[in-house]
Each structure stands twice: as C-alpha cells, then as structure tokens.
Amino acid sequence: MTKGVQGLKKSIIAVVTGFTVAAGILSGGITGRLGGGQQVQAAEVACTTYTGDNIEDQNYEYSQWAKPIRSYLTYENGTYMRVQAGADANGYVVEYFDSSFTITGRKIVPQELPLFGGFYEMNGNYYILSGQTNKNESDSVEVYRITKYTKDWNRVASCGLYGANTTVPFDAGSARMAAYGNYLMIRTSHEMYAIDGVNHQANVTIQVDTSTMKITDSFTKVMNINYGYVSHSFNQFIQMENGKIVAVDHGDANPRSIVLVRYPSVVTSSGFTRGISYSSACKATDIVAFEGTKGANYTGATVGGFEISDTAYLTAGSVDIDSTAKYSAGQDIFVGVVSKSTDAVTVNKITNYTAGQGTTDTPQFVKIGTNSYMLLWHRGSSVYYTKIDGNGNQVGAIYSLAGDLSDCVPVLAGDKLVWYTWKNEILQFYQININDLSDYTVKNVVLGHSYQVSATNASDASVVLTCSKCGQSHTEYVVKSFAVYWYGSADNGYYYTNYESRYDTGTKLKFLLRNQTYSSESDSTNQNSEMVWESSDTSIATVSNLTDESGTVNMLKPGIVKISIYPKYNPSCKKATTFRIGKEGEVSLDDCQISLSQDQYVYDGSSKKPVVTVAYKGQDLIQNTDYTVTYTNDTGVGDAVVTVTGKGIFAGSKNLNYIIEAIDIGSYKLEIQPDSYIYDGTEKEPEVKVVISETTGNKYYLDASNYTVKYENNKNAGTANVTVTGTGNYSGELKGTFIISQKDITGANVTIPQESYEYTGTEIKPEVTVTLSDGTGLIFGTDYTVSYEDNTDIGTATVNVIGRGNYTGKANGSFGIGADIKDAEIVLSMDQYIYSGRRNTPKATVVFAGKTLVENVDYTISYEDCIDAGTARVVVSGKGNYGGTAEKTFEIARKGITGANVTIPQECYEYISKEIRPEATVTLSDGTVLKNAIEYIVDYTDNIEVGTATITVTGTGNYIGYVTKTFTIIEAKKDDGSETKPGDGSETKPGDGSETKPGDGSETKPGDGSETKPGDGSETKPGDGGKTEPVDVPAIITVNKTTISKVENKATGVKLTWKKVSDATGYVVYRKNSGSKSWKKIKIVKGASKTTYTDSTVKSKHGTVYSYRIESYKSVNGQTAKAVSKEKKILRLTAPTKLKIANQKGRKLSVTWKKQKKISGYQIQYSTGKTFAKGTKMTNIVKSSDKAVIKKLKKGKTYYVRIRSYQKSGSKKTYSAWSSYTKVKIKK
User: Fold this and answer.
1) What is the pLDDT of residues 1021-1065, one digit of tens each?
2) I need a labelling partner for 626 at 20 to 30 A (CA). Which of 347, 608, 941, 952 fits?
3) Does pTM surpass 0.85?
4) Does domain 1044-1131 have CATH number 3.40.50.720?
C-alpha cells in the first residue's frame, strides 16, 4: 500500500523506518530495522547527514579499472575512526564511534588538493594523499601532495611532486601505501604527458621520508617492467618485504597480466630505484595472463587484495567464467599463489559459478593472523566469505550474510573483522567473528533527526514527538474527527457526502476536508493537521494536492481502488472510499481473482451452490453490481459448473468447476461372519454385510447391489482380507479381515527310520515322517521344521517337530544313541597303595567323549588283585547305553618292616661250637605279628663263636625292608667249672687272616658308593646271598619339569602357555619384576590338563619387564615332588589408546592415537571384516608418530582399523595386544 503526505501546515522532519501503522493514535517509540541490522541510537552529533554512498565501491569502473579508495576505518582501544572522502565538499569527514557503534564525535578536515588519493596511518601520524589535474603539462603544477597530521588531525607539514609527467593523477587506477621505517611508500597511477599526441596511462611509485617530509625518490617516467613500470596499470598494490618493494599491478599491455613485481634493492635514503638496471632489474612474475589484443582495456578480471605469507605471495581477485562472453557471463573468485621458494604460480579457484547466472563483485582480501587471511566477495544480495591459509588454500566452509561490501578495507578489531557501508544518512557496520565464522552482526547507524511518537494521550488526541538520536521533543495535537465532501457530477460547484458508482478514466475528482476537530487544549501553534492518503493500487488511482482542507483523486486507469484519507498520527479517523473506474465492460474478469467457498460436496439429492468471491487487485467485488452468478449440474453426482459473468465495468465470463462426489462408504461399518476358521486347505468366503447405521436393537444395512466384495489371502493360515468397494452412487472402500488359524499338529505320528544309532561324536539327525491323525502327510520345510535335542552324546535323543506355515503346535519322537565303553578314560582317586591286608578300592571316574558317566547307570565297577602287593585292576563294565569293558591298573606296594620289633626267647646263649639260631618273632608297630617264611625270612651272622650274634629279619611277600636283632654267645662252662675258650686251635680267631672283618674292603658299607640303599627297590640285604629285592617304594616320588612355550601381551594382561606334564597334580606360577631377586608365587593351577594362565595384575604396567617360571608338582600319600621350569621374560606392552579414524578425500582415511613410550614402533591393521580374517592389510609406523594416512581404499566399503605397538630387540619383536577396532565407511 502506498502512502502520501501533502499540504502540511508546518514542516516536521522525521525519519521513521519500517513500521506498521495500527488503528488508533500512534503510541510508544518506533524503532526501525534496516537491512536486517540493529538500530543504534546515536548522539546528538549524529543528526547531521551527508549525501552519497560507498556500496560496492571496491568494484572496477566499467568492469575495466579501479578507482581510489575513499572509505577508511581504523580501530584503537575500543574506538573506531571513519575517514570518508567525497561526502563533504569542504573536506574529509572524520567520525568517531565507540565499540557499540554509537557516534561520539565528528571533524571536517579541510581539503588539500582537489583530487583525493588515499589515507594512511603510520608511526603515530595520519597521512592524506591528494592531487590535481595538469592538462597544460606544466612542470610547476603540484600534481601529488602528501600531507602529515597528528592523531588530533592537526596539520603538521606536506610535500609534493610537481609536473612529474602527470596530467591526471590517480587516473584509471587506485592508490595504496606501505611503511618501511620512516619511509612512506606509495604506488598509484597517472595519465602522462602526451607522446605523439596521445596521453598514455601507467603506474607511479613515490618514496617519502616522513621524518623530514621530503620526497626522496619517485618513478613517473616511461620505461619498462625491468624498472617496475606497468602500462596501462589499472590497479596498484604495494607491500614491503625485508626492506624491498613487492608490488602487484593489473596490466592490459606491458605486460598484459596481473603481475607480481619484486624490486632488487632495499629502500634507503638514496631511494628505491638505486641500482636498477638491465642486469639488476625488477623481477616480474605473471600471476594471471590475459588473452586479447595488447592494450585492449577489458581483461575480464579484477584484483581485490595482495598479501605476503611466510611461504608465498597471495593475490585475490575475480575472473570471467567464460572469456568469450565479455561482461555478461559472470565471474569466479580466485587466489593467485606465487611460491617464494620456487616461483611456481598456482591459481586456486574458490568458486565455481555457472555462466550467465549472476555477477560477482571484486573481492576484499585481509590478513587476520599469521599465515591466515579472510577472503570476502559480494554476489546477488549477500556477502560470502571464507578463510585462506598461507599457501592460498581455502580453510573450512564458505559462509554468507545478507548485505554489501564497500571500498572500505575490513579491519581487525580484537577477534572481529569490521567494515562499513554508507548511503546518505545510513551507515551499516558489519562484524564477523574470526574464530566462529557463523557468528556475525550488522549494526545500523541512522543519521539526521529521527522523530518518533514517544507518548500519546487519547483523551485529548495529542502526541509527543521525540528525535531518537538527539532527544529533541515536542507535543502536537492531531485531528480528532473530520468529514469528506466529493465534488458533484453536475459540475455545479457543489460537494456532497455521496459519490458516483462509476467514474471514467482520466477523471480528477476533487474533494474537501471539513469539520476538523482538535482538543480544546490546543491552539494553532501546536495543532498538527498533516493528512495522509493511501491507495490500494496507485496504478489505478492516486491522490494529489492533498492539504488539510482539500485534495484530488486522480482516476488513472480502469479498475476498482480503495482510497483512504486520515490524520497522520490518528489513523482511527480513517475515511475509506471504493471507486469503480472505467467504462462499462472495460475491465476483463480475467484480471480478477475468483474463488469458491467450497469445491467439493457429497451427493445427498439436494442442489449444491458454493458462495462465489470475486476480487480485483485485492478489492472484493459486489455480486449483481460487478458480476452475476449461475450454476449448472448442481444436483447430481459428477462435475458441476458455476459461471461468473461480468457486470458494470467488468466484462467477460469465467467458468469454475466443483465436484459433487458419490457417498463414501468409508464411514460405514463392516460385518464379517464367521470371522475365524481353522486351516483345511480350502478357500474361505464368509458372509459380508455393510452397516449404514444402528440404533438400540436395530441395524440398517446397505443393499448388496451397491457394492462388490473381494477376498484375498483366504486359503492359507493367517489374516485374510475383505475389500468392499462402493458402486453407483457409492464410492470408496471398506476393508476388513478374518482369521484362518493354523492347524495344531500336537499328537501327530512322528516316524523315525531306526530306534537306535551308534555314537559317532557328531550330531545324529535322522529324517522323519510326520502324519496327522486324519492321514494327511506333512511336507518338511513347508508344514513343519525339525530340531533335535541330546542327539550327539550317548543316551536318548529327542526329535521335536514344530508346525510352520499353515500348522502350529509340536509333536515329538525319540531314538537311542549307544557306544562301546572300551575307549573310555578312567581316572582313579589313587593309583598307588601300600599293602595293608585289606581290599584297596580307589574311586573311579569314567569319562567317555568328554562326558562323565554315572556309576550303576552307565557302568559297573569290579576290582581284581586288590589286596596283595603288586598290580591291581579296576574293571569298568558298560551298562544302559554303553557296552563292553575298560580297565585301569594301580599299584599296591610292599609294606616296609623297618622299625618292627624282633623278639627271641633269650638274649644270651652258651657257646656250643655250632650255629645258634633262636626263633625270632616279628611284630609291627600296629601289633601285627608277621608269619615266618611267608612274610619274612631270617638270617643269622656271628652266631657260632663267643661274642655278639646278629639276626637279620628281611620282609618278603607283601613286606619289604629289614630289621636286625642281636644276642650274646658266652663261653660254655665245663663240668669241672672251666670254660672252653676260643683260640684253642679249633675256632677261627679274629686277626688270623681267615675271617672277614668290617673295613677290610670286602664288605658293603652304607655310603661308600657301592651299596644299594634302602628304598630304591634294588638293595642287597645281609644274608640274602647277594639277592636284590624292591623296598620302601613310597619314599620314591618324582615329577617332570614343564617348558614355558609362549608368553604374550594381551589386553587383559600377560598370558602364559606351557607344556602339559601328564602325571602332575598341578602347577605353581611364579613372577619376578626386573631388577628384583625374589620370586613371588602368583597362582596355583590345579590339574595336569590346564596349561594356560593370564596374569591380569600387570594389565596396566606398560614398559615393565617381567620374568616367569612354572613349577610342576605331584602329591602322593602326603608326599610332594616338585620340578621348576626355566624362566621366560617379557616386556609388558599395553595396547595404544584413543584410536580415532576419519574419512578423507581420495579414498583415504586418517588414523590418530595417543603416543606411547618405551616402544620401537606401531603396527596398524585394517580390514573390510571386523574379525580381520581375510582381506586384511598391515602397515608399520615409526615410534615418533601419532598419526597415519591409509590410501587406495575402496569407495563405499566399511573398513575396520586397530593398532598395536611393539619393542624390537635384535631380530626379535615383542608386541602389545591389539586395541579395540574402530570403523568408518569410505564416502569420498
């Protein structure tokens, strides 16, 4: 809607942006939003405005050359300073803003020379570059001036160039400056003195010593690229590197390229051209070379920025997408890169736009950190931006914001990149957070008075108007009521409250505003009689010459329009009038919007007539005034038509269709009887009825002639579907279901080919036949499935037949599995006994095929030869499912008699010159009296001569060992009382060389290395004539050593594996830390068969060396034998942690992990299977790294990755356990 204000009693300047007027007196402060930004209330100084703008002024003129930058922004200690040339005819505008962009001050710096070149800040001072034309080519005209100012903008001094081969400074180019020490270096352009009547254009370089404000060197003459001369040069950039000039120019001829120029000499007080010659020339590198004729101004490119990183020279610009479509194809953004080390040139395209679909403006390119830059460009209605690194590569995504760039080069304010645009009274400040590019703000500063309604009083129709910036305010009283009088058609000078129903195009209808009323408290000095007009369509009618007393409605073209008139600050008094303009039939109904209140009905036998609404450009027409309506086919089912025919100024007719639909039966109910069956192999079709409605006790059904019935899935078990479809006057569908239940096979006959099968150690799965009670044979896989229980081991196996498909329930069968027990393993509770005279019956455990059998169920036991010393037998006889027999032997050792009590009838006997053999009685410690010749034998020594005789009792039969007893032989007494003495020539005397003496080398002595010792089962006993017999078997227990076969690092600790010692009772595991001398017992492993153990106590002890040894032991009858293995060492290595992987471009993935100490390197394993069973590859990584890249992977495949570390000693490697795997799908 368009608004107009005319005929004010007094002028009130107001800036009100983007608000909506509501009914009633305007109330409250009105704050506008401009360009999506935030309104900033400026200080009183902000009520001054300037005309002009800088929006997109960074763009080239005519898409061919640059122009001097007129907009500058600086930031220092929370204060922004804006320097704007061209905004004030008296000088340069300098404005100050706080960190919230509230204006805090303004200066007008007097203009120097008429042409503005640029602004620069260095070493605590400001500098302005200005110039003037010299069309007469006079060497006395100052064409360039550099003026120095303090930070308070006090003029310090100036210096200039005169003549300088210049007619127009800054012509078709820009001006940029750089600092080196006290030297201000300037690179710009000029139009030169005529050569052969032609004024050519080229670049200019100037050196100023700011300490003396003297120009110490300049280059303005015609030369060549060896001297840094470029012609034409349409844009100029300058930087200083190690005291030398590095510049970028945009040339169209010599050279025809964007060219990087590096000067050979360091800038000194002698200037920058010192030493330049053909042998020591400037170094020129083409960044972007252009096609076309040398000197053709259009090159299809622009340059927006130049920066120097640690490794490269970076230039940002735009270039035509299609070089053959000059101007119209659009541009892409690029970054040109010249390597410092190789001089290689790379042009990185940042965008890839489609030709002909938009224009891209010249970019801005700004340094935001070490080797970090921001690239910004404008396209359409948005600013796009992204980060660039020191090698000219894009970093991260491209972001955008709604807004514009300008010729203001963005500045870095803390972590914000800031620039501004300016158009007349509006400044927009843009901020981008360089640490989060998605975070940006756009803040607006509106200059000039901005009056807003700050308060209202409905009772006296007054408003308070306040400037939102400087705060100036005053009260005004507005019109409370008024009347409108229209000039009569009779053209008799009279005005009426009524108006005509139609006016011709071109009519100028005058009107009067009368009867205005104000508050009684007002007077002519504070009454506001401003009137506002609104037109619903200004192309049809407008209001002109509007004052507080009259106005004119201008009827511009045929149509309907609403004209509203009301006091500016009191829209509640609005007077709205609708006019019809044009001759009868002059406006076509095709220009109207016609709609129906309803476009669908359901047939019920009555006429259906939707309400018709006709609008012309937002204005509703009146039926029978502007149009008439007729209906066709508005009763029956099908397409109905409403015809709208124009009337009055409207002509033509339009038909609109609407539909009368058949009755949808979807809201009715479906009855299905019966609603369930049991599967029998036949199709089921229950009776179906459609219920229209029902009341208590009554149901009303739809006649079956109005619908069809379709059955689906009505044979097999499951849910069968019924679809009822309306016909004739009925449409739609009703759907219902009924159930066909599965038939129960419980009790079915399950036939198995055999009643029993022989045990094989594997599952036995005989085929079965299943028959129902009615004789129906079922089909395996279709009607039933089979599972087996207990069908591997010996016993009774079960066959489970489970119904499927059309059947449910379960039937069972069984068969037996038997085996010969001969191969069973028999383990005895004891395999050695000592003779006791009782039966020895060790407990037997019988294991067959890994199963422990049950005595008296699976087998019976008998014992043979189980009393006397020797080999006894345990006989296991199969029972139940087992047949045959198995045997196991055990040993009964002879009992030792050492320590037995030997008694004889008397302790002393008289010499009788022959052997004395007293009868010996042998009693064991438990009171058992042994049987002579059966359980022991007796030998006598020294039992003839006077002296001590020895009886040796030696065990035999069930006994072993020996025991001795001595008795004394004394001289016999003669009848005469004398004794018979040895040595009378009849006895063998000691010492005569005939007896065998202890120690003469002929006897066998214990401990001399020649005797057989008791307990070894082979000693020679006294008196046995040299016979060898076993004795004291229980004292001999031995066990073999084991060997540690493997020591490994696992995720849970160190795993040990050793060889089995078959007769061991168990093992003891010992551990010793590196540097320790003592061993620590850490685990007792019972049983000979268990030969592994994992030491979890060292799970997290990365980098420690441990030693291990295994002690095998055997225990029999309370005695234990032990044997210790050799030790084995291992360096404990834990698996690397924090494994992460990520997909990368080029079918690669990156791998990172936490670096470990005390290792030699890492192994990375990757596979397409998480078990790493096949298709697995491995790569080794040096120990100093914590990342790797895996290449040449298959796109679309998921890869599983894990890592382990290792320590190398010589040729041997010790590995850690594998880490948990991580997976990723290759998408790029």
Assistant:
1) 333 333 323 233 333 578 899 999 999 999 899 999 999 998 899
2) 608
3) no
4) no
